[in-house]
Structure formats: C-alpha cells, structure tokens
C-alpha cells in the first residue's frame, strides 16, 4: 500500500553543497574568465562577435576598484607579511610573543622559559630528522659525527684489575693444559675379559665377510644380466631413451662439492640483517 | 706473530698451544674491550672474553682464512655479547629492554672499575639506551674505528644499512645528551 508524500511535512532543506569559499571567490573567478576571454579574442584577431556582450560591458564597468587599488595592492600584501626576509619556515617571534602573552592573560596558560625562542630551532631539527629518515644522503652519513659527539673526546672510561691480561693468559693456559692432559692421559678400565672381546671380534669378522660375499655375488649376477640386456639394445634405442629422460642432476644426485663450512658458519651466525639493524635504529626510548 | 703464521702453527700439534697463546696475546685486548663496552661489568666481560677464546680454540682448526682473523674473532665476540644480553633480558622476567639498560646504567653510576668525567658517563648512558645491535655497530665504528666494510664482514649487514644505523645512532645520542 503506497503512502502519499505530503510536501508540507517535509522540511525545506538544501541538499546541495558548494565548495568552501565559493561565493567569496566567485567574483574574482568571473573577472578572470572575462579577462581571459577578452585576451583570447584580441590575440586571435577575431571580430569579437561572440564577445559582443563583453565589449559592451567592459570589466571596468562591472567591477569597480578603488582608485589606485592595484598600484597599492603589492604594498598592502607586503605589509601583511611580517619579517618577509626570514625563511618561510621560520616563525615570527614577535607575533608569537604577542600570542603567548594573550594566551597567558586570557587562559592562564604558561609555557616554559624561552619556549618560543627555541621552538623554531627544535622544529627545524625535527624537520631535518624526518627528512633524514626519508632519504639518506650517504655523504652526510659519512660525516655523522659533526655535532656534540665530535666535541667529546674518545676516552676509555673502563678500568681493569692489575695484570688482568697476564692472568687471562695463565687462565687460558691452565684450561688448555687441563684439556690436553685429560685427552692424553685418559685411562680405560677393562670391564670385560680379553678372551671374550677377541672371540666377539672374530665372530663379527666372519659374519661381515659372509655378508660381503653374498652382497658381491648377488650384485655381480644382476649387473651381468643388465649388461646382457643392454647388449641387445641398438644405439638408436639407447639414444631415444636418453632423449626422453631428464638427464639433469637433481640436488640430491649431485655429488657434494664441499661439505666444509665457510668461516662465518664455523661459529653461530651473528645474524644482523639490514632490516634488523634499521629497525633497531628506532632509537633511545 | 703474523696471523698466517699463527694459523699454520696452530695446525701442527706440537706448536698448537704456542700458536694459540700468541693469538690470545695479540687479540685479547681488542676482544676484551669490545665486550666490555657492551656488557659494562668487568666480571661479565672477563667471562665472555674467556668464552670467546675457548670457542676459538675449538674452532680455529676449521678456520680457512676466507675472512680476516680479527673480523672472525670480532664476530664470535659480538655474538657472545648479544647472546649474553639476550639471556640477561630473558632472566629479568620482563620484556622491557629498559630493565637491563637501567641495570647497566646503575653499574656506571656505581663506578667500580670505571673512570671518566660526567660527560663520558652520560655518553655511555646514552649508548645504553640504544638497541644492542645498534650499540654494537656504534662501538665498532666510533671507538674501534673499524671501517664499514669491516663491520659489514663482522655483522653480515650491508654497508648502507650500517651507515644509516650509525648516523641515526649519533642523532639519538646527541638528542639524549641535549635533553639530559
């Protein structure tokens, strides 16, 4: 069941929005468009048919400016930009002083002493710091110690007990001696009688020889069979078979080139990756 | 004694101990100070220095001189330091890095076997606020004056990353020194 929309019950709302400052900038936008159109027409040396309305109502007629407005405009703008000679990043300290006193008077807030005097430098330091993290200049990185750190003499503040290094040698020597003496002078205690050991060794040797003979004879016979079968194959058949096979070596089939470790692998890897070291550069907490 | 000679003599059973003694005498100070700057406490540094050389004794036979001997030693020492500090953090039963940094900082204040004026102590305290790996790199560059290439060989990190790390470490240290 359809319900009827009663207009009277609807509130009157403007659902359309405009860009910010639209109306404030509209006159100048129109003025600009008009000027552009006029210039284009003149440059094209056209009869200005389509601009007849403009010709009839010239800019001067639509918008009136105070006398000498444009002559004084630049000076007016300049007068509203204090300390123009300063860098745009630097703050106007005199304006801040006023602002500070105003805040202090009206809201009772205070700032640390010389807060605003040092603020520009601190901001610049932060800006420089953020720029550094974004793009790294390696020439600059080479000269990292240019500030306070460069002024501090490199000094070893740590001390060691008297004759420490001499004692360190002795300690290590003792360790070595202990290790070597234990390895050289190790005594073995015979828990099993010697005749039992000899019998066991002899029995194991016989068993090993028998196993070896059986293995040799079985592989020889099978290899002989294979040789006979291969003799029956033609060269073409063998080549055809090899073409069909993937003859590349797999990693498991490849003979080990070197099983030795590299020097860096002898001890535990230190494992400081680039990412690691840069993440570690988060800094002082 | 040259490194090459030490290595040659170490491979011969009769001259092994003498070669090792020569190696220890040659490198003990470098290794000790590298460790001491990381762990601050002398007793800890002493233990670790000995651990390093014991490890060297056990592994030098396999060393094939692909790298410089001292970079290999630094590598072992650095590893020992990082492992030690990592264990210390785990033992503190908290994940907060500050606990260990504060403990080491306190040792600086206690001044046992420590000299130096206020600014030097403050610099060490600033260093303790850096993450261990960054501190390690900083020490090797700043105090030991190793090149980035050498540090790269020791840590396995690229020179670019090391430069960036060092640069940022310096910034952070200076910020700390200004604010404290």
UniProtKB/TrEMBL annotation, chain A:
Swiss-Prot/TrEMBL keywords: Membrane, Transmembrane, Transmembrane helix
Transmembrane region(s): 195-216
Superkingdom of source: Bacteria
Protein name per UniProt: Uncharacterized protein
Source species of the chain: Xanthocytophaga flava
TrEMBL record, chain B:
Pfam families reported for this sequence: Sigma70_r2, Sigma70_r4_2
Gene3D superfamilies reported for this sequence: 1.10.1740.10, Winged helix-like DNA-binding domain superfamily/Winged helix DNA-binding domain
Keywords, alphabetical: DNA-binding, Sigma factor, Transcription, Transcription regulation
GO-annotated molecular function: DNA binding; sigma factor activity
Every RNA polymerase sigma-70 region domain range: 23-90
Name listed for the protein in its UniProt record: RNA polymerase sigma factor
Gene Ontology process terms (BP): DNA-templated transcription initiation
Family recorded in the similarity comment: Belongs to the sigma-70 factor family. ECF subfamily.
Domain RNA polymerase sigma factor 70 region 4 type, residue spans: 122-173
Keyword match Transcription regulation: yes
